[in-house]
Design brief:
21 helices; 489 residues; elongated
Length: 489
């Protein structure tokens, strides 16, 4: 059991946790955003991040600091906290990003980890190999083997109280991701970044990103804090949290501001194209778009970066509340409607519903059916799995209609869950709010529930009373189940 990470609340695979960072003597609540600080260019100062935005932790690049003689000497002399003027926790990257961009760097894992330790980093990172998506398998395997060697080197170094990241690589091969995660989990390292997913996010391949995270989560223990490296847009935070990610680092707030781009939870706008500012943060309540455009470039960049941070931190808080309320997947659903690629991500998440079900709480306040994807949520999977706990007998009517005295038992049928005894009608998730006009996918999943119940109870005679189900649903009902179309009566 990892003593430095404690789970408090959960919804789907998302969780609220407490990450204790011993060297900084702070405990950070997750999910958490780590703003990226370039030691040479600070659009928003670290002190302002801490005092105005409530940033508890940030990330900076130890490779850049190590490669600059003045910064290196100052970091070793006064420490990173004083160098950056930041009282919270500081994570440092190792130069792996530069390795992925330029093909080589001039430090080893031992050199950079010792430097991170000596400079006062609270969470350090070895030099892993960030294998990009879609490479051939041989390359992915070779580079993963190198990353595993680097993790072994990191374990052997005395890092004192500094926590150490154990990056999970494997490109777009789920089995390699799972293997890499299991290997990392078996080390005595502390935080587990899913690496080399930035190219997927840059190309809006959110479905592939979800598959990579799902594979990593299968290899990691439940008590493993997971960092999604390079995930900086608030549009996708809810999706990543629902898949089980706990930490995010963002340079997007500054990079987008530099290009005149304005972040929202549903996408990115260009300041030049805005007539109104659709936000209530201090920047947006104190300025009009024209006033922002009239500022000099430096001031405009700082104001846009501040807005971008406000909307980003706000989304993290909204996600935490959704976890507490048990409606994280409803939030994911809302965000999925912002962009077709986000919908791909949500559908990929639903493809892993059985995996999510193992972490998802068995009871919440309400289940809202909002789209065809809702039919594949973990709660539906769980209901179908638990039909083996029920014991129907004799002749049983499964119906969307009323009770009948002509049967030994009458069970309700509620799409997408399917059949259940009426006594369970007030239990979660069968209290679901479901639209009257049901889509084919909800009815198909209800039919799956009927088929599962019939398979489990071959000696019971089942009759299904449905209200005009389509052939795509009725084709899933076993031949031994008698079907009545109640809408024709």
């Amino acid at each position: 059991m990892r003593e430095h990470f404690e789970l408090r609340d959960a919804d789907a695979a998302g969780r609220i946790g407490r990450l204790t960072v011993p060297r900084a003597d702070v405990t950070v609540e997750t999910p958490v955003l780590l703003p990226v600080i370039n030691p040479n260019i600070q659009t928003i100062s670290p002190r302002r991040l801490y005092e105005e935005f409530g940033a508890e932790i940030l990330i900076t690049n130890s490779y850049i600091i190590h490669g600059d003689d003045d910064l290196r000497e100052e970091a070793l002399d006064v420490g990173l906290h004083e160098l950056l003027d930041f009282p919270g926790a500081i994570m440092t990257d190792s130069g792996s990003f530069q390795l992925s961009e330029y093909g080589e760097i001039d430090v080893t894992t031992e050199e950079i980890l010792r430097f991170q330790r000596d400079a006062g980093s609270d969470i350090g990172t070895p030099v892993d190999i960030p294998t990009p998506p879609d490479v051939d398998r041989e390359r992915a395997e070779d580079e993963l083997a190198t990353t595993k060697d680097r993790l072994a080197e990191a374990e052997a170094i005395d890092t004192g109280e500094m926590l150490v990241n154990a990056p999970v690589q494997g490109s777009t091969y789920p089995d390699l991701r799972e293997d890499a995660a299991a290997h990392a989990d078996a080390t005595d390292l502390d935080v587990f970044p899913v690496g080399a997913v930035v190219p997927l996010m840059n190309d809006y391949r959110y479905g592939d990103m979800v598959d990579a995270v799902a594979a990593a989560k299968r290899g990691l223990g439940e008590d493993a804090p997971v960092h999604l490296f390079g995930a900086g847009h608030p549009m996708m935070f809810a999706l990543a949290v629902a898949m089980g990610c706990d930490l995010f680092d963002s340079a997007a707030y500054a990079l987008y501001a530099r290009d005149g781009r304005y972040l929202t939870v549903s996408g990115t706008e260009h300041l030049d194209e805005l007539d109104y500012l659709p936000c209530s943060c201090p920047v947006c309540t104190e300025h009009t778009p024209d006033e922002l455009r009239a500022l000099d470039s430096r001031a405009r960049e700082e104001e846009l970066a501040a807005h971008n941070l406000h909307v980003t931190f706000q989304e993290i808080r909204r996600i935490k509340q959704a976890i507490r309320d048990g409606d994280l997947l409803e939030l994911v659903e809302a965000r999925a409607r912002a962009h077709p690629a986000m919908l791909d991500g949500y559908r990929a998440l639903c493809d892993h519903a059985e995996q999510l079900e193992r972490a998802d709480p068995a009871s919440k306040d309400a289940f809202f059916y909002l789209s065809t994807e809702s039919a594949d949520r973990p709660e539906v999977v769980r209901h179908h799995q638990r039909l083996d706990r029920l014991d129907p007998e004799g002749e049983v009517l499964l119906t969307e209609g009323n009770n009948s005295d002509n049967f030994d038992e009458t069970w309700r049928v509620v799409p997408p869950f399917g059949p259940f005894p009426r006594e369970l009608s007030e239990t979660y998730p069968l209290t679901a709010e479901v639209p009257d006009r049901k889509d084919a996918r909800a009815l198909e999943r209800a039919a799956d529930g009927v088929a599962r119940l019939a398979e489990l109870n071959p000696d019971v005679e089942f009759t299904l009373g449905h209200r005009g189900w389509p052939e795509s649903a009725l084709d899933r009902v076993p031949d031994g189940v008698t079907c009545w179309n109640l809408s024709e009566w």
